[in-house]
Amino acid sequence: MLIVVAILLLLVSAVIFTRAPLDVAMVGCLLLLVLTGQVAPESAFLGFSNTAVLMIGALFVVASGLRQTGAIDRIAPMLIGRPKSVRAVIGRLGVPVTALSGFMNTTPLVAMFLPVSLDISRRLKVSPSRVLMPLSFAGILGGQLTLVGTASNIVIDGLYGEQIATWAAAGIEIDPGWILEGPARFLAVGVSGVVAATLGLMFLVIVGPWILPNRGMDTSNEDTDRYEVRFEVQSAGPIEGKTIEQAGLRHLPDLFLVAVERQSKRLAAIGPDESLQPGDILCFVGSTSGVRELRSIAGIEVEDNQATKVNAPTPIRTLVEAVVSPTASFVGRTVRESQFRTIYNAAILAVHRRGTRIEGRIGDITLDAGDVLLLETHQGFLTSHGRGNAFYLATSVENARFPRHDRAPVAITILLLMIISLATGLLSPVVATWVAALAMVGTRCVNASIARKAIDFSVLITIGAAIGIGMAVAESGLGTAFGNGLVDLVRSVGGGERLLLTTVVIAASLIAQFATNFGSAVIMFPVAVSTAMATGASPLPFVLGVMAGAGSNFLTPFGYQTNLMVFGPGRYKFTDFPRLGLPLLLIVIVSATIMIPMVFPFR
């Protein structure tokens, strides 16, 4: 047992005081536990085939499908609008995530809202670290609203049902008040969960921005006035008739709408309430990354639909910057005269010349040696023309994406069917998520290559190792000894049943931070039942207390899957989690201690 404690302390020290990647530290810790004989190899590595790991792998693919079709960009405004401050982001993200987490698994929700949160942080020019941790914590709070909110609740409910059956078989008298059925069973954990979720969300919105770290954001040294690009509003598109504000064109990252050309008139100094009409030419000024984001918005196309005439399917399209060579055959000609698109299978989106952006219709621009062309083309362009006589240098723009907007309704349908399956239990969670993932690939919402790249294996490795470490904690007896020790301490000081309940919740929550919510559920359930039997009290309050504690993974990044999912993108440190998580854990403990006995008395 002492060896397990020492290895866990080594793990925590490695994460806090070194730059060791979390997945490497976790696997290293697991290997030490195996080499020292604290856990059998078959138990240690069983976590890598756990359904939670398989589910998260599938959910990465589902999220990629939503992203590649632009579906996520359509869903987000309907649920959260367009917040303009960090507090507004936390509140508008937190409420739907918390509410939905009570009725479906938290992981797909965070997977769905993670790219939305990153987009919003870029628009507001704030660090992702200011919004991602509250996203995960909101999901965790929502998991305590109902029985199906988190898997540990279901595990504990199953253990309690088996315990009742064992007592009945042994002839032990069972009080009818110990048994819950129907809606009462489904909503029992919400007695304290609703209060904790409400107070927790208020805390995240009001106090969270003061505590959350600022880890910076991805910034580039690009010239924000590098290019002028011209896009046309499509007839019957999703932004036709909307104002500039409603269409989401007002606060684009690294991009500014300088004018709208309508029926040969140029409207400058456009207000946010200006309605967009079919055929409007939107003139934007911005950097390469700004144009990259603009290209993913549904309802607008490059002027004269030149980009749609490029012979390349959406999955292999990319943006390229190319410097014109003096020997290029099109030097001295206009873009229209050069037949550039026909010859190079590439559409010119913008031109930059000697530190100055070139304005006006692309077809009328006369090309010159040294011009930097921003092209929409195919991935083979660099191989075919990148080192030819026409260009000095050609480089691909990173992370350029071209959503298949026509597949967005299909992706949304797949997502809704997955949510229905998860919420109703029509399919097991792992089957439902993998069916959805394969449907995304099968319906061409995302191609197989991008789907494979979307799976973050470092997250999967970390979760698999965390489950194995939890097995070691359970098998060594460390978790049981810890829980029993706390309960014995309360008894020794003469604490009553409410203090015992508080201790059970605290013990379950602390074990969950390192042994995961599953490990905490398995370890603390017998402790809770034996505590109730020893005092002659109803076991139900203590069982609900274990649910509340085991589902409160706020203090460590590896305590819960969603914490791991935001750890990397948010650039968090280990110590960031307890700073914000400890007050939330106290809210859960106090809510459980007060509310559970009020509805489900000890006697």
Write the layout of secondary structure elements.
Elements: H1 2-17, H2 22-35, H3 41-44, H4 51-68, H5 71-80, H6 86-101, H7 106-124, H8 132-142, H9 151-169, H10 182-187, H11 190-206, H12 208-211, E1 227-233, E2 255-262, E3 265-268, E4 281-286, H13 288-294, E5 300-302, E6 317-324, H14 335-338, H15 340-344, E7 347-353, E8 356-357, E9 372-378, H16 381-385, E10 391-396, H17 408-424, H18 429-442, H19 448-454, H20 457-475, H21 478-492, H22 497-535, H23 539-550, H24 561-567, H25 576-599
Antiparallel strand pairs: 1-4, 1-5, 2-3, 2-4, 6-9, 6-10, 7-8, 7-9
Helix pairs in contact: 1-2, 2-20, 4-7, 4-18, 4-19, 4-20, 5-17, 6-7, 6-8, 6-11, 7-8, 7-24, 8-11, 8-24, 9-22, 9-23, 11-25, 17-18, 20-22, 21-22, 22-23, 22-25, 23-25
